Fold this sequence. Notes:
This protein is α+β, with helices and mostly antiparallel strands. It folds into two domains: 4-70 and 167-228, Ribosomal Protein S8, Chain: A, domain 1; 77-160, GMP Synthetase, Chain A, domain 3 (2-Layer Sandwich). 40% of the residues lie in helices and 24% in strands. The protein contains six helices and nine strands, in the order βαββααββαβαβαββ. It is globular and about 55 Å long. The protein starts with a strand and ends with a strand. Residues 38-48 and 61-73 have low confidence and may be disordered.
Amino acid sequence: MPKSIIVEGKTTSEAISNGLKELNVSKDKVNIKVLEDHEKRSFFSILSPRVVKVELTVKDEEVNQVKLKRNTNTISEEELNASKLKVDNFMNEFVKMFTSLNYKTEVDLNDGFLKIDINGDDSKTLIGYRGEVLNSLQVILNSIANKDAKEKTRIILNISNYREKREKSLEELADKLSKTVFRTGKSITLEPMTAYERKIIHNRLQSSDKVKTYSIGEEPYRKVVISKK
């Protein structure tokens, strides 16, 4: 089934641009449908903020190509090992900076990417509010692993199983809010989230016959909106 999202913007062009960024595809890879256009507003709504809603649906052939790319590991073992060595060296130095804290790190090769686990009594101090420190550290590790690399290595950082706990929490939140939206008929806009977290919400509710989801805003303040179908 083709992937579809609904996005907003002040103009049709802005809404489409937001959608293309969310899907990470070019304009020729999607079908575009304008749902709400500010040009059709009534005279009495002229003072209201201009909002255009569009639906972008990835074409069937593009969906298949994306799946193929995801299932194809093109990075060489040599590049992976080189990236692992750089990350290992950084993490060893990083741990030395916090001698008063009790935690350990593990860096493993896992199906074409590097998985880094940090565990221990004090490891939660590296998570931060809603994973802000964890996500920042992952960005740093990605930069280190891919410095001067010919092929990009994907880094996944997990601290005290935070990823799994956060995913479960977001899925429960999505279920709860979808019921509220269906009962009240009013849309709910969530707080800004990372692309990883927004994807969890979208995936959780994508098969719902009662509500729909779409994203609005620009990074890093992009938000998920849940509205009634």
